[in-house]
Specification:
This protein has a seven-stranded mixed beta sheet, sandwiched between helices. The termini are far apart. The protein is α/β, with parallel strands linked by helices. The chain is globular, with a radius of gyration of 25 Å. It is built from twelve helices and nine strands.
């Protein structure tokens, strides 16, 4: 037995060999380049702790932070016809859907839920940009209609978080038809006298901006979100001029009257609670986990004196 080969060398290799480190422990901020530890980033709602840049957040992560104790109930959405146009580019459309479902663990690009936010009942819908760029297809149209119908049924406000690259080209004209469909859904809320609040996140573009994303009673955006129909590069190539600094970003649109507020993600929940309760004619929300104290009853002797 060669003890140097069989014992000493493996022992030395084990001491000096590089340990495998999971690749998903750190995220590099695309704005400032800071390496962010995944737990700290999650606790800060996917906002860079160094520069405040808002990174993408999934609908489930958003709802977990939005609803009281992270508790919500999903609203069912009618299933549309899969691949109605038999569309194929480099891949078949069903293959792209399966790949997106596998990578995101979600059925489609929009999640609808109901629950309480600051003890205020609401219905919420959020787009997932990681699912085929949050593109608006028939399912997204069905989801917004289902959210509006549920809000009208329960007499609750609807809060929608938009994040999309536009219409889904694999569904062609059927995707564009979701623009008038969702506009009618928003009108249902207005006729019922229920608030419709839109939170525009980065990016919100194309047919989404040209329909339900810009029809809110209150328009709020996250900082530095790109909000437009045609992107700045397309506009510059068309008019052959340099656009102003920050053109089509949330702060620019706020300055030019297109938005009501630009709110940081960490402050958004409290602001939504305040706005909704004010629009619904409700008293301010009670802070803390305990119920509001009841007015103490007067003793029987004092009642008789009065």
């Amino acid at each position: 037995m060669n003890w140097i080969t069989n014992y000493v060398r493996p022992r030395i290799n084990s001491l000096f060999s590089r340990r495998d480190v999971p690749e998903n422990l750190w995220t590099k901020c695309p704005e400032c380049g800071t390496m962010l530890f995944h737990r700290e980033l999650a606790e800060n709602l996917q906002v860079c702790t160094n520069c405040g840049h808002h990174l993408p957040i999934t609908p489930r992560e958003r709802f977990a932070a939005l609803f009281d104790n992270g508790i919500f109930k999903e609203v069912s959405v009618p299933e549309p016809i899969v691949d109605p146009l038999q569309f194929r580019d480099q891949k078949k459309y069903p293959e792209r859907l399966k790949a997106a479902q596998k990578s995101t663990a979600e059925k489609e690009a929009m999640l609808v839920a109901e629950g309480e936010m600051g003890r205020t009942p609401i219905v919420a819908a959020a787009q997932d940009f990681s699912f085929m760029a949050g593109s608006m297809g028939m399912y997204v149209g069905n989801a917004i209609i289902a959210a509006a119908q549920r809000a009208v049924e329960l007499k609750r406000p609807l809060v929608l978080f938009s994040a999309a690259g536009g219409a889904r080209m694999q569904e062609g004209i059927l995707s564009l038809m979701q623009m008038p469909r969702t506009t009618v859904a928003v009108q249902m809320l207005k006729e019922a006298g229920l608030p419709y609040i839109v939170v525009l996140t980065h990016p919100t573009t194309g047919g989404v901006t040209a329909s339900y994303a810009m029809l809110g009673d209150v328009q709020i955006a996250e900082p530095n979100a790109l909000i437009c129909f045609a992107g700045p590069r397309v506009i510059e190539q068309t008019i052959r001029e340099k656009l102003p600094e920050g053109f089509q970003r949330a702060e620019y649109l706020l300055d030019h009257g297109m938005l009501d507020r630009v709110t940081k993600r960490g402050e958004l929940r409290d602001e939504l609670i305040t706005i909704i309760r004010m629009m619904m004619g409700q008293p301010p929300a009670v802070k803390g986990e305990l119920a509001a104290p009841a007015t103490p009853a007067l003793p029987a002797s004092e009642t008789s004196k009065a």
